[in-house]
From TrEMBL:
Residues 38-205 form the AMP-dependent synthetase/ligase domain. It comes from Kribbella sancticallisti. The gene is menE. Signal peptide: none annotated. Residues 281-350 form the AMP-binding enzyme C-terminal domain. This is O-succinylbenzoate--CoA ligase. The lineage of its organism: Bacteria, Bacillati, Actinomycetota, Actinomycetes, Propionibacteriales. The keyword Transferase does not apply. Pfam families: AMP-binding, AMP-binding_C. InterPro entries: AMP-bd_C, AMP-bd_C_sf, AMP-binding_CS, AMP-dep_synth/lig_dom, ANL_N_sf, ATP-dep_AMP-bd_enzyme.
Length: 361
């Protein structure tokens, strides 16, 4: 197993080779030294591969804990790319606006190889990159934060795509409404590195993927699943049961579509009361003075877990507590409010929850 630079050209070259059978398994490494070291620790490049069923090893983003090395086979990558094209209406050309050392970016390149089109890599201008595309069908993938920013200044370019796959985080109701109003075809996708990127589009599983539940926990089965965690057989055995991958997410079916409710660790006990953090966060996002928000449970000697709201905006703690209490129990209102100019983000486009939590402990 070899390390390759996490640049689009280097990853595309290595990926093309493993997909056609001429290359060896690889792990893409970001340029940032600290991030590169986390990848090396997760993928253990000097240790023999424990599975022949591995083409790429990706390090999870570690947004809420230690990064893990996720082994993906060539068959899983191809199955994901093929099912995506089937759902979107056929192969096309892809624009890459994200880093290819995360699964969302890697799969943009995989889809490009399968479709036979050279991917267009985002430069300084999104519009210029969109104009450079020559495929009959045009696709891209991004996180909600990118979509929201491009809606403000790149609307016509967004409208030119046949489909924009949105992953990495859930889309807010406000963002979904705005996308519909502006005539942009944005499709929310649910998935993760372990599922070979998005495996459920707009609540409906891709071809070959099945969804089930175990006491609210989302279970996934299908050909896009990873082969296991690098040198973590005990963890691999813990998350796989009878071919089903046991995610850390809670969900349910609503009108036959998957609705992700939150993570299993989104419920904390604060002062003896069970608090659903995602419900508090959703309520805060409804406040006109809050542009963005994340709610975490932070260890506290008095409360057990202290509910802390990190908000982009300046409504004030008391106002936000009252606003939350209008629709949720008063005991769910955040004990602490941290005002920020923006939420810290990982390169994957996810909020750096670990950094936020460490800043208030």
């Amino acid at each position: 197993m070899r390390l390759v630079p996490g640049t689009p050209d280097a990853v595309l070259s290595a990926l093309t080779a493993v997909l056609d059978g001429t290359g060896t398994p690889f792990a893409p490494v970001p340029a940032d030294p600290a991030a590169a070291e986390r990848v090396r620790q997760a993928v253990a490049p000097d240790e023999p591969l424990e599975s022949d069923d591995c083409a790429v090893i990706l390090a999870t983003s570690g947004s809420s804990g230690e990064p893990k090395g996720v082994m993906l086979s060539a068959d899983a990558l191809v199955a994901s790319a093929t099912a995506t094209h089937d759902r979107l209406g056929g192969p096309g050309q892809w624009l890459l606006p994200m880093q290819p050392y995360f699964v969302g970016g890697l799969q943009v390149l995989t889809r490009s190889v399968i479709a036979g089109y050279a991917p267009v890599v985002l430069g300084e201008s999104f519009s210029a990159a969109a104009e450079a595309m020559t495929g009959e069908r045009r696709y891209t993938a991004m996180v909600p934060t990118q979509l929201a920013r491009y809606l403000d200044r790149e609307l016509e370019a967004l409208r030119s795509f046949d489909a924009i796959v949105i992953g990495g985080a859930s889309m807010s109701a406000e963002l979904k409404a705005r996308v519909r109003a502006e005539g942009v075809t944005a499709i929310p996708a649910y998935g993760m590195t372990e599922t070979g990127s998005g495996c459920v589009y707009a609540g409906e599983p891709l071809n070959g993927t099945s969804v089930d539940f175990d006491d609210g926990r989302i279970l996934i089965k299908g050909p896009t699943l990873f082969s296991g965690y690098r040198l973590r057989p005990e963890l691999t055995a813990e998350v796989f049961r009878d071919g089903w991958f046991r995610t850390q997410d809670r969900g349910r079916l609503v009108d036959g579509r998957l609705q992700v409710v939150g993570r299993l660790d989104d419920v904390v006990i604060s002062g003896g009361v069970n608090v659903t953090l995602t419900a508090v966060q959703a309520r805060l996002l409804e406040h006109p003075g809050v542009a963005d928000a994340v709610v975490l449970g932070v260890p506290d000697a008095e409360w057990g877990s202290r509910v802390v709201a990190f908000v982009v905006g300046q409504p004030g703690r008391d106002q936000l507590r009252d606003f939350v209490s209008e629709v949720l129990p008063r005991t769910w209102a955040p004990q602490q409010v941290v005002e920020l100019t923006e939420l810290p983000m990982l390169a994957s486009g996810k909020v750096d929850r670990q950094r936020l939590a460490e800043g208030v402990r």
